[in-house]
């Protein structure tokens, strides 16, 4: 049986936008209103609102009663992995030439350590 990766692919699709990533990462700092992030990103409110709605539909963020938006537990977990993915993306050439099997499988430092290493 072939594993179904549709949900995973959809998650990557929803995060495949600089603006949506910026929104998700900003919400780690606390609740924010659409207009505030629109100003910070130099984008229009309707454009940013559409991205907020996509993130809400994906359950990565949620709208608060006061009109601000906050990050969900799922959003926090995903946001915590963005720096790792960025590190791997920035260092593709390094990892292409290195065998990951030589790394300790249960390293207490984990990927947080590798994120601070400069290849």
Question: How is this structure best described in words?
Answer:
It contains seven helices and two strands; from the N terminus they run H-H-H-H-E-E-H-H-H. By secondary structure, the chain is mainly alpha-helical. It has a domain at 18-94: Winged helix-like DNA-binding domain superfamily/Winged helix DNA-binding domain (Arc Repressor Mutant, subunit A). Strands 1-2 form a two-stranded antiparallel ribbon. Helix 2 packs across helix 4 (45-57) and helix 5 crosses helix 7 (110-116).
Structural descriptors:
119 residues; mainly alpha; 60% helix
In summary, what is this structure?
By secondary structure, the protein is mainly α. The protein contains seven helices and two strands. The chain has a domain at 18-94: Winged helix-like DNA-binding domain superfamily/Winged helix DNA-binding domain (Arc Repressor Mutant, subunit A, Orthogonal Bundle), CATH 1.10.10.10.
């Amino acid at each position: 049986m072939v594993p179904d990766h549709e949900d995973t692919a959809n998650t990557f699709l929803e995060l495949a936008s600089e603006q949506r990533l910026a929104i998700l990462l900003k919400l780690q700092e606390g609740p924010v209103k659409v207009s505030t992030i629109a100003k910070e990103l130099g984008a229009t409110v309707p454009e940013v609102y559409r991205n907020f709605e996509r993130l809400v539909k994906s359950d990565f963020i949620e709208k608060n009663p006061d009109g601000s938006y906050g990050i969900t537990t799922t959003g926090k977990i995903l946001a915590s992995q963005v720096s790792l993915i960025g590190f791997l993306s920035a260092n593709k050439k390094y990892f292409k030439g290195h065998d990951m099997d030589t790394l300790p499988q249960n390293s207490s430092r984990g990927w947080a350590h590798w994120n601070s290493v400069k290849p």
